[in-house]
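Give me the fold.
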Amino acid sequence: MTLLVPLYIHPAEDPAAWRLLASAAGRIHGVVLNPGDGPGDAPDPSFVTAARALREAGTRVLGYVDLAYGERPGTAVRDDLDRHREWYGVDGCFLDRAPAGAADLRRCRRLVRAARRRGAATVVLNPGVHPARGYARTADLVVTFEGHWTTYLSSFVRPRWTSRYPPERFCHLVYGVPPALTRLAVRTALERGAAVSCPVAGELPNPWAAPPFSLLGEAP
């Protein structure tokens, strides 16, 4: 079980959740840091402290950057990457709302290269669906499903090309999972070719306001 955890709640509002992630470093692929739909307009001391605690515990910290499905200007994306690195010392980036079509692949590759040049050791792309095949070679990890548990059970289709890649290259983010079924959700992700996942009980508009407590236990 390896978890990629988007935790979209302020550390001052739920410090126990952040402590829990720092204590569970061995089971976590990375934690997505999202102070304000990105790095925010200025450094947030609470997020600075939380990011430092995660890194000191050995947990990878990924700065949230919105690609707006390829519509966001490259200068804005690069500015977010720079701020995350300067303010929070992130280890990599989580490129959310990434495009999925073949026509956008070249531009996406340029943005990933820009992230690498800015020190991103780990790049995660989140189109939320299976993208064109070339995206799997572009990033370290690709989120090929983000959605509700009921949709995951009823509508998920795995393209045949994904079997050519190791499951460690794919991640499924599933919300609305009944707590009693979180381990089933992890097993289902593995069976569907994703070695990284994050099943949470939360619902829209912000299902990522808490980590999967039923998998990680209680915060110290």
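The helical segments are 15-23, 45-56, 74-88, 105-117, 149-155, 182-191, 213-216.
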